């Protein structure tokens, strides 16, 4: 296994290259070594900067002057130590390490209001955590909608020194997918919190490694047969690049007749995506840091919060190049496909593919999506779920109104995060930090999930599901009709601090007889699972990680509108929460008052 | 004395009117009474909202759904208690009570990094302070550039029960002046902090009580003889209003043959202003909460951070209305005048004045500005300055470069505010909270203030001028040439926690022989004083207010670029700083570590 270079004659990122070299020499001496495992130190500064992710200048949230943020590469067993300084003017910041379970370090999970106080402007916080398992991960902001503002990057964990992957590859590429709006995230937030409600709309551009093209297309000469007129490429002019533009497309430069691993992760704010590569099949081998029973596909569905590794074999005509195309699923697309180029050496990267980009399946072909999801099984020999659950929580997903404001609610409670992080307020038994009543475990059995709510009025709350330590918990995510008739949306739910087994998907309302159909034999372990329109998804996990953990729809505006819940387990086992994680809100005041 | 209504047939703010009535009935029971003085309680929520201050929709920072924020009215001796909740998504917030000296309550001064920790999203802070002196004040954000985002309002202190003003008036109006940009403050901040530097440019609109008109004019039929073509009104179409628009002009509805007090305050981010009323002279009677020796003017210069009361007599033809016009001074104007209407009863407010709006003096007629400033003297019988100073600090104002970034510096130090508020770090003797070396008291005697700096490189710092308690301090503000040749700008300097006596203005570099010309007889007390291009301004104050106090250019982007200093005095006398003011940064950690 080797690592191929992403460099191509078309993309001369000379200054970033030099920066990378300088940073490498700076970092070399500070990679601490202990046994086989290393501590990998990073010194990051978060700040806004002007950037042109899609050839239109805008303000993005960057790290050390880069967008997306720097890629972290480590080996399983290493400790990652990120010294994060907030260089924003007036905003706090946190970073969540998506997919890292944070065993023993729940305060490093980077979720505002849950695992830590936000890092205020000018302040520094150390994220120090072990990456215990190889896989494809990423990181992103988890305060307000800062992820949508561009605060994200990749976190790649390679196998440890003594380990090897259960598949072979000759090189790898990393593809971090996102979506991009021209309206500022601040204004998006105001619109979502306004009455009348203002929806953010569809993204202007899809980005691959932070690069997209607005109002022009690399593949302007091809007509895509998508139903939506705006996703036809013929209306756009041809994008021209010198190669050093911030929006120049990503090039995957490959040798013929080799096998490459593509690490694909989606940190979209909204869009469900589908990825395909012209003339190349993909073998799916990893999801969310867990090995899968390999299966071959022409295209890959990927929802926000998910990651996959796929293997491709470069067995096509090496005198040509091929499109890698990303399109929108599950919502009527108004966003043109995101494109990258699979470039066979020694063919020039500037030679555009002669075949059109692969076509994303029709946006509402949910059969296609469900078929893909149902192909995903754990690699033989993977850990199996406990045979039975000790607690079952059924979570109804509904769109609601609270005092005229549009919200999402779970069992009729829209999550309103408190200013004091739960980790501290639960640890120290603070009485007034959040709603002390546990939220409902189920919903009215007469609720009709196929119709808009008869009474859309809901309430907001900050209650917690307290899970007994080490118990097995089943969660049934139940989808329903939104406020408008005949609308039910896709929601990718992401769990912090754990993976869960995805036991099954079903249509309509979950019922006792569905239990028998659940897969307890080889369900995949994931940290993110989707609910399909009008359907349910069954998950199982063991509450074995002391801490407080968010479980929420990974669509950024949906979480902003209250679509999440909070689990807490074994918090009394934690005796070493760092002070700096709790210097705010009621925990901060508690410590102050003890001294005065 | 009575209070006239601002209501007019043209401005039917029915919902706001009803809101005001509701709020009044809610507030009635919670105005605490103790002796003659009352405690006035306010419950405020700060949040972003859509608003059209100049007929163009934008996002503004509002309070309780209002822009500008609610007007506070109190009587001298009252206590104001504002319970401020931060409803922003990711930004901290503080509010500074501009002109209130905060004797004994320096933690309520509302300056981030100086007097308190910022109020984080979801948190509440109580500002509780005494308004000990009648006058025209205002309040505004003092974190990042949140004032520019619209976080401001008026604070009017009437004379106490047993007092009376030294002048008569029959009614009063309140005019809060500001300037407005269409670019978001977040983006403005990024531009100012970028290399290459991006200046914010001139404002799109001048606002009077939060109301202006972009791209159209009330007075479209008149040609103004201003040199800048853009300030001619003829290029604009006529603004049409039903009267209930957020950008409908402010109407001053007056009875004939009465005397009115106009309370004028400027919280502009950038613009120096001049105000005039067609056919009406103004008698200036108050500045920054201090009575003046009355003097009559045709127009009033007002710089950001200043307030004035002027008296007008409604002795003109009552069958006509008259323009009140506000224009830009000191910078080549690219912003049309802000307009309001002086409406004589019973004439309809919708009858536009037949004479053109008064013309602002030529922007660079500094002689006019200086003549105005030199007319300002304290009312006979006002307190006089000590005859001599015990410490003199000379502050050279220069524009500089730090690592390629454009900054403003004082004696070659550009202020970089620390994350831990000085009030706590000085009180508790924290070692690493800010630069322990005192900044320079003077500058190189060979420095040529008439030319660009020969070496523009500067340094940033967070040092403090520690003032011995109760000593008399003179500050000489020395202006100089900016980075470009033949450029020297106006800077209005504002001192927190004190008023100062303005002892004099002069041209060129201040020298010992200028001392004799200082006015120790009847200098006005102010909290804001301007330095004119290439000139100096001499101030004197007594360091008699225990606390830490900002002294800075009140131009918002200039402060953002480092144009300020910090004074501290008598901090050891403070034994009752509320905990919640210090729950952040190193003071927060100090208290936590004491417990662990």
Automatic annotation (TrEMBL), chains A, B:
| The protein's Enzyme Commission number | 1.10.3.3
- Please provide an example of a Pfam family that matches this protein in its UniProt record: Cu-oxidase
Q: Where in the cell is it found?
A: Secreted
Keywords per UniProt: Copper, Disulfide bond, Glycoprotein, Membrane, Metal-binding, Oxidoreductase, Repeat, Secreted, Transmembrane, Transmembrane helix
Q: Which GO terms describe its biological process?
A: negative regulation of defense response to virus; response to hydrogen peroxide; response to virus
Q: Does the keyword Iron-sulfur apply?
A: no
Q: What is its main location?
A: secreted
The protein's job, in short, is: May be involved in a redox system involving ascorbic acid.
Its quaternary structure?
Answer: Dimer.
Q: What is this protein called?
A: L-ascorbate oxidase
């Amino acid at each position: 296994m080797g690592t191929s270079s992403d460099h191509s004659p078309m993309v001369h990122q000379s200054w970033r290259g030099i920066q990378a070299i300088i940073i490498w020499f700076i970092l070399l001496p500070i990679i601490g070594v202990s046994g086989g495992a290393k501590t990998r130190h990073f010194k990051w500064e978060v700040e806004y900067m002007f950037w042109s992710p899609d050839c239109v200048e805008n303000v993005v949230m960057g790290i050390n002057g880069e967008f997306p943020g720097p890629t972290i590469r480590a080996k399983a067993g290493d400790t990652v130590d990120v010294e994060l300084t907030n260089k924003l003017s007036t905003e706090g910041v946190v970073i969540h390490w998506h997919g890292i379970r944070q065993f023993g370090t729940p305060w490093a999970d980077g979720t505002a209001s849950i695992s830590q106080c936000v890092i205020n402007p000018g302040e520094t916080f150390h994220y120090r955590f072990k990456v215990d398992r190889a896989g494809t991960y990423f990181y992103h902001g988890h305060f307000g909608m800062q992820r949508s503002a561009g605060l994200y990057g990749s976190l790649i964990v390679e196998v440890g020194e003594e380990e090897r992957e259960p598949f072979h590859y000759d090189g790898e590429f990393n593809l971090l997918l996102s979506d991009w709006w021209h309206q500022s995230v601040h204004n998006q937030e105001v619109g979502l919190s306004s009455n009348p409600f203002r929806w953010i709309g569809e993204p202007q551009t899809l980005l691959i490694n932070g690069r997209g093209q607005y109002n022009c297309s690399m593949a302007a000469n091809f007509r895509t047969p998508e139903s939506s007129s705006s996703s036809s490429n013929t209306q756009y002019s041809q994008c021209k690049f010198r190669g050093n533009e911030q929006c120049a497309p990503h090039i995957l430069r490959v040798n013929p007749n080799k096998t490459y691993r593509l690490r694909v992760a989606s940190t979209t704010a909204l869009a469900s995506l589908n990825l395909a590569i012209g003339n190349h099949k993909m073998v799916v081998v990893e999801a969310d840091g867990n090995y899968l029973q390999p299966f071959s596909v022409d295209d890959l569905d990927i929802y926000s919060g998910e990651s996959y590794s796929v293997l491709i074999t470069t067995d096509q005509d090496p005198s040509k190049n091929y499109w890698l195309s990303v399109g929108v699923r599950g919502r009527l697309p108004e966003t043109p496909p995101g494109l990258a180029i699979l470039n066979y050496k020694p063919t020039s990267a500037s030679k555009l593919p002669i075949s059109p980009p692969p076509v994303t399946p029709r946006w509402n072909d949910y059969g296609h999506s469900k078929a893909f999801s149902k192909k995903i099984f754990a690699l033989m020999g993977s850990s199996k779920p406990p045979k039975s659950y000790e607690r079952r929580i059924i979570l109804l997903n509904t769109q609601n109104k609270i005092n005229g404001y549009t919200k999402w609610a779970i069992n009729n409670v829209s999550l309103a995060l408190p200013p004091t992080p739960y980790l501290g307020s639960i640890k120290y038994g603070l009485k007034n930090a959040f709603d002390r009543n546990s939220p409902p475990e189920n919903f009215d059995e007469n609720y009709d999930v196929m119709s808009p709510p008869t009474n859309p009025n809901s309430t907001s709350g900050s209650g917690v599901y307290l899970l007994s330590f080490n118990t097995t918990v089943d969660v049934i995510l139940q989808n329903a009709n939104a406020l408008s008739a005949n609308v039910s949306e896709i929601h990718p739910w992401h769990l912090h601090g754990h993976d869960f087994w995805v036991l099954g998907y079903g249509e309509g309302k979950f019922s006792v007889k569905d239990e028998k159909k659940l897969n307890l034999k080889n369900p995949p372990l994931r940290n993110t699972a989707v609910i399909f329109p009008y359907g349910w998804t069954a998950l199982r996990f063991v509450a074995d990680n002391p801490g407080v953990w968010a479980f929420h729809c990974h669509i950024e505006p949906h979480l902003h509108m209250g679509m999440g819940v909070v689990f807490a387990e074994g918090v009394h086992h934690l005796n070493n929460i760092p002070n700096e994680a709790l210097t705010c809100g009621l925990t901060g005041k508690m410590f102050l008052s003890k001294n005065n």
